């Protein structure tokens, strides 16, 4: 599958990001819409994968700076990957891994030396294959079991 991964900047691109997240998290996984979109969206870096025909296929976000410090317990140099979502039609193509790598690069560009993410337990193997290590206990987020994972950048 040939796609383009870019940093979403225009209102139209950010609308595509929200559309993918709504489809994957709200509709498929029953995450309440009020939990899916938050104040961190406004200052995060959002990556967007578009198919050759312009169809939105996947997204993810990077929280950095003061907000990352707040969310990671003040860990200097740590940035936070979140809201990674790939539409059903593009799953199993390697797109998720390419989105993670694009977010890692964005993390480096924003001064990050370590990346933290909160993985759904069913996705732990995916992130482990990309070099992430689980830490701490399993916890619930939006009714879905998660575990914190980290990787040096």
Automatic annotation (TrEMBL):
Keyword Transmembrane helix recorded: no
Pfam families hit by this protein: Acetyltransf_10
Signal peptide annotation: none
The keyword Nucleus is assigned to this record: no
Protein keywords: Acyltransferase, Transferase
Ranges where the N-acetyltransferase domain occurs: 4-153
Matches recorded under InterPro entries: Acyl_CoA_acyltransferase, Bact_Acetyltransf, GNAT_dom
Designated name of the protein: GNAT family N-acyltransferase
């Amino acid at each position: 599958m040939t796609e383009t991964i870019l940093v979403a900047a225009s209102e139209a691109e950010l609308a595509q990001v929200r559309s993918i997240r709504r489809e994957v998290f709200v509709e498929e996984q029953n995450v309440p819409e009020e939990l899916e979109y938050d104040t961190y969206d406004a200052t995060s870096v959002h990556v967007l994968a578009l198919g050759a025909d312009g169809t939105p296929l996947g997204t993810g976000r990077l929280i950095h700076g003061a907000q990352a410090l707040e969310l990671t317990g003040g860990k200097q140099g740590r940035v936070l990957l979140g809201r990674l979502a790939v539409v059903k039609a593009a799953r199993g193509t390697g797109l998720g891994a390419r989105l993670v790598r694009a977010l890692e690069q964005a993390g480096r560009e924003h001064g990050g030396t370590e990346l933290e993410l909160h993985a759904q337990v069913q996705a732990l193997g995916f992130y482990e294959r990309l070099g992430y290590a689980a830490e701490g206990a399993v916890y619930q987020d939006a009714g879905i079991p998660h575990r914190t994972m980290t990787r040096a950048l």
